[in-house]
Write a structure and sequence with these properties.
Elements: H1 3-17, H2 26-29, H3 31-35, H4 47-52, H5 55-62, H6 68-78, H7 85-100, H8 102-112, H9 138-154, H10 161-186, H11 188-205, H12 211-214, H13 217-222, H14 224-230, H15 241-249, H16 251-265, H17 267-292, E1 299-300, E2 307-312, E3 323-327, E4 331-335, H18 342-356, E5 366-369, E6 373-377, H19 390-407, E7 412-417, H20 425-439, E8 444-448, H21 453-457, E9 462-466, E10 469-471, E11 476-478, E12 483-484, H22 492-498, H23 503-518, H24 533-537
Parallel strand pairs: 1-5, 4-8, 4-9, 6-7, 7-8
Antiparallel strand pairs: 2-3, 2-5, 9-12, 10-11
GO molecular function: ATP binding; ATP-dependent DNA damage sensor activity; mismatched DNA binding
Transmembrane segments: 142-175
Organism: Hymenobacter aerilatus
Length: 548
């Protein structure tokens, strides 16, 4: 290996082992995912679920890719869970190989290092049915070029024609200058095609035992002709003679039109190389993630086995306390005050389910589950632009979840946080009970609530777990441990006292709480006020909601 390659490899290895935490340019990174939205897929993660699971931050944590192509493929992979167990096992084997074989990893890193320019984000533009935009009046370019040549040659027999040559030259120059900026913008991805070809060729020559690379021979060969045409746009002419020739004969316009046709014809080959290169880069990123975090390989079981999470933690929460959960025939109802860990735990479960079916890697001791789609309602907001209240947004979101579960029963994992909190207590409890009872036979459901009555109302189809805090005269703290059974303690008003609320406020709150707890409800139920911690939560630093 030559010395420059050794230096490059040391730099690349260091970046792979500890990737720099940088904020990705999500609009550019998401271009490939957006490009394939119309294509059929087992599941595309909705924007709401992606936001609820802190998808952009999760992507940043995983992003140890080398190239923009790898970034785009990783983002697409994270938002497109698979139902193909063989494909997931194959990706796991690729990540394992790159983690355990430094020589193989070095070959991949060096190959991908050719494709690091920012312009590589625009290679996606070459993958569609109309990969490059057409130029206005492009057919006129050939006529103008022929007119100039005809008058130039004809002038040797009839010198008056050279006046026409002058006119054509002036017109062609103006025509060229008006379209030059547009052409430079359009050929931006075309100029990166050679780098993509080189990266794919070096990965193939390295003979890495990865299936996508074994299918690259034909696509790489088919790109040769396109690259020869595109190379003309990269020629640098210090003398300016070529620029004059291009201006008078409209060479750029004519060549762009030919390249556009060739790119359209070879779009499948370009996509094959693009996805193979991105696949290797994704596997490198996942191998890095496995080196930096405690993870396990998921095991996919039949649906009747349910979902089992052991030692699951959230990789975005420093020092996250691991928890276990088995989700089988019954749904799970989580209770507990804010900051105790409910939402973070639900996100932990969602992230494990998502990563299991995208990168075959889970931040847990063990994860066993059937193939499923993840949908969430954890962090909704009202919409000022459409004039929708918070409750209306909640209701519309839940309607979409109900329709999804009706269309494909038994295939969804639903994570729901405090449903219908935009309305009054009585109707909230009634709506919660009706919706959760309807969803439970059709999906795996984990729902968090402050309404203790729901545990009793849903005891036939839900089991209760809780998180709790400990409040003393001197301090208050959380252990973030998931515990079985309903929450039996109330510490909200004691927490007000601990935060030095006026004694009169604390005493009045305690007295009213006691009265409400003993007052019978008109329908024979007692409405708890376990949502009391909400008032305090806004004046404290959320230990739970580090991700929101």
């Amino acid at each position: 290996m030559w010395t420059p390659s050794r230096k490059r490899l040391r730099r690349l290895e260091a970046a792979w082992q500890q990737p720099a935490a940088s904020t990705p340019r999500i609009p550019l990174v998401a271009r490939y995912y957006n490009h394939v939205q119309h294509e059929p897929a087992y599941h595309r993660l909705p924007d709401q679920t992606w936001a609820d699971l802190n998808g952009d931050s999760l992507f940043t944590l995983l992003d140890a890719t080398v190239s923009p192509v790898g970034q785009q493929c990783l983002y697409h992979r994270l938002r497109s869970p698979l139902d193909d167990k063989d494909a997931l096992h194959e990706f796991d084997a690729a990540a394992t190989l790159l983690a355990q074989q430094p020589v193989v990893r070095g070959q991949a890193l060096l190959a991908l290092d050719h494709l690091t320019a920012q312009e590589a984000y625009y290679l996606v533009d070459l993958l569609g049915e109309e990969p490059l935009p057409s130029l206005p009046n492009v057919r006129l370019s050939a006529l103008l070029a022929l007119g100039l040549l005809a008058t130039l040659l004809g002038g040797f027999w009839l010198p008056m024609l050279w006046l026409g040559t002058l006119a054509f030259g002036c017109f062609n120059a103006v025509f060229h200058l008006r379209q030059r900026v547009r052409i430079q913008l359009y050929v931006r991805p075309l100029l990166q095609l050679g780098r993509l070809h080189r990266a794919g060729r070096e990965l193939q020559r390295a003979a890495l035992p990865l299936r996508p690379l074994q299918l690259l021979s034909e696509p790489l060969a088919r790109l040769g002709g396109v690259l020869r045409q595109a190379a003309f746009f990269q020629v640098v002419d210090n003398m300016g003679l070529l620029e004059i020739l291009k201006m008078l004969l409209l060479v750029d316009q004519l060549l762009y039109a030919r390249c556009r046709v060739a790119i359209q014809r070879q779009a499948p080959a370009i996509r094959a190389v693009f996805e193979a290169v991105g696949y290797v880069d994704c596997a490198l990123a996942v191998a890095s993630f496995r080196q930096r975090h405690d993870t396990c390989v998921p095991h996919f079981e039949p649906a009747v086995a349910g979902i089992q999470l052991l030692g699951g933690y959230h990789p975005l929460v420093p020092g996250c306390v691991p928890n276990d959960l088995t989700l089988a025939e019954s749904g799970v109802l989580l209770t507990g005050s804010n900051m105790a860990g409910k939402t973070t735990f639900m996100r932990t479960l969602g992230v494990n389910a998502l990563l299991a079916q995208t990168i075959a890697t889970c931040p847990a001791t063990a994860y066993r589950a059937p193939i499923c789609r993840v949908l969430t309602s954890l962090n909704l907001a009202d919409s000022l632009s459409t004039g929708k209240s918070y409750y209306l947004v909640e209701a519309e979101t839940m309607r979409q979840l109900l329709l999804a579960c009706d269309a494909a029963p038994g295939s969804y994992l639903l994570l729901l946080d405090e449903l219908f909190k935009g309305t009054n207590t009585q109707e909230r409890i009634a709506a919660n009970k009706a919706v959760l009872a309807y969803l439970q036979p059709r999906s795996w459901v984990v729902a968090a609530t402050h309404d203790g009555e729901l545990g009793t109302l849903l005891q036939s189809c839900f089991v209760e777990y809780h998180f709790c805090e400990t409040v003393t005269e001197e301090d208050w703290y959380f252990d973030y441990r998931l515990k079985t059974g309903p929450l039996t303690t109330r510490n909200a008003i004691r927490l007000l006292a601990r935060l030095h609320y006026p004694a009169q406020v604390v005493a009045a709150a305690q007295a009213l709480s006691t009265t409400l707890a003993t007052r019978p409800h008109p329908h024979g139920a007692h409405l708890t006020t376990s949502a009391e911690p909400d008032a305090v939560a806004n004046s404290t630093i959320y230990k739970e909601d580090l991700l929101s």
